[in-house]
Specification:
Largest sheet: 6 strands, mixed
Number of domains: 1
Number of helices: 7
Distance between the termini: 42 Å
Order of helices and strands: EHHHEHEHEEEHH
Number of strands: 6
Structural class: alpha+beta
Strand content: 5-15%
Shape: globular
Strand order of the largest sheet: 1-2-3-6-5-4
Length: about 240
C-alpha cells in the first residue's frame, strides 16, 4: 500500500480547507495577528490581503526531516514569487519547537539556516547580490541561489510584533525590497511601518538597519544584541 506523503506546503486556498485542527489553529492565529488594525508591518498585511503568502508546517527546527521539506518548499516559494512578480509574497515556516527564551530561539533559528545551507552546499551558488559573510553589512542568507531576509517569530519575543504562539520564520526575497526601492516605494513604506511600530511596541526596534548600512544577521531572531555578538552561521 502506498503511504501518502505528509503535506507541508500550503497555498491560501489549500490551508483554508485543511482538515488538521492544529494547522487550522496556526493559520487562524497568524491571520488574526497580522490582520489586527494596529499590526505595524504593512508588507505582511498586503501579503495577507492579496493572498500572496505561503505556509510551511514542519517538525523541529534543524532536524533532517524539517530541513529536507523546508528546502523543497522554499524552492516552490521562490518559483511562485518570481512567476507572480510579487513585491510582498512571503513564506511563513512554522515548527513544533517549544523554547523558553529568546536566546534558545535564536540558537534554533541559526541551526535551521545552517542546516539548509549545508543541505545544498556545493550544489548552489550564493546569491551574488549579497555577501555570504554575516559580519559584513551586505550579508543576506542565501538558499537556492536566492537571497532572503528572514524574520523570526516565537512566543518569547521581546518585541510584540515578533511575538507569536509558535516558533517560526518568515522568508522574504531580498529582491522584493530592491524592487520597492526601484519603484520609489521603499522609503515611504519604511517610514509608515516604523511609525506604526513605535505605537504598537512603544519604540522602534533598535536592531533594524537598512541593507548595506548595518548588520542584517542580528535582525533575524529579533533578540536585541550588542556589538560583540557573533553570528554562528558558517558558509
Amino acid at each position: 500500500m502506498e503511504i501518502k506523503k505528509r503535506e507541508t506546503y500550503y497555498m491560501p486556498q489549500d490551508i483554508e480547507v485543511e482538515s488538521s485542527k492544529r494547522i487550522q489553529k496556526i493559520y487562524q492565529d497568524f491571520i488574526q495577528k497580522v490582520d489586527a488594525t494596529d499590526y505595524p508591518c504593512l508588507g505582511a498585511k498586503s501579503a495577507i490581503h492579496t493572498n500572496h503568502y505561503r505556509f510551511g508546517i514542519y517538525e523541529e527546527m534543524g532536524n533532517p526531516e524539517s530541513t529536507v521539506s523546508l528546502a523543497r518548499d522554499l524552492k516552490k516559494y521562490i518559483k511562485e514569487t518570481i512567476a507572480a512578480d510579487s513585491q510582498y509574497m512571503t513564506m511563513i515556516a512554522v515548527f513544533t519547537d517549544v523554547v523558553q527564551s529568546e536566546l534558545a530561539f535564536e540558537k534554533k533559528l541559526w541551526e535551521q539556516l545552517q542546516s539548509l545551507h549545508d543541505f545544498e552546499k556545493g550544489s548552489q551558488p550564493w546569491d551574488p547580490a549579497v555577501s555570504s559573510n554575516p559580519q559584513e553589512d551586505d550579508f543576506s542568507f542565501s538558499f537556492h541561489g536566492t537571497a532572503f531576509f528572514v524574520v523570526g517569530i516565537h512566543p518569547n519575543a521581546s518585541r510584540k510584533a515578533r511575538r507569536f504562539g509558535y516558533c517560526g520564520m518568515a522568508f522574504n526575497l531580498h529582491s522584493q525590497f530592491e524592487k520597492l526601492r526601484e519603484n520609489n516605494l521603499y522609503e515611504k513604506m519604511k517610514r509608515a511601518i516604523r511609525e506604526r511600530e513605535a505605537t504598537y511596541d512603544g519604540d522602534i526596534n533598535p536592531m533594524l538597519k537598512d541593507h548595506g548600512e548595518g548588520l542584517e544577521a542580528p535582525q533575524y531572531s529579533g533578540r536585541q544584541v550588542g556589538q560583540s555578538w557573533k553570528c554562528p552561521f558558517r558558509r
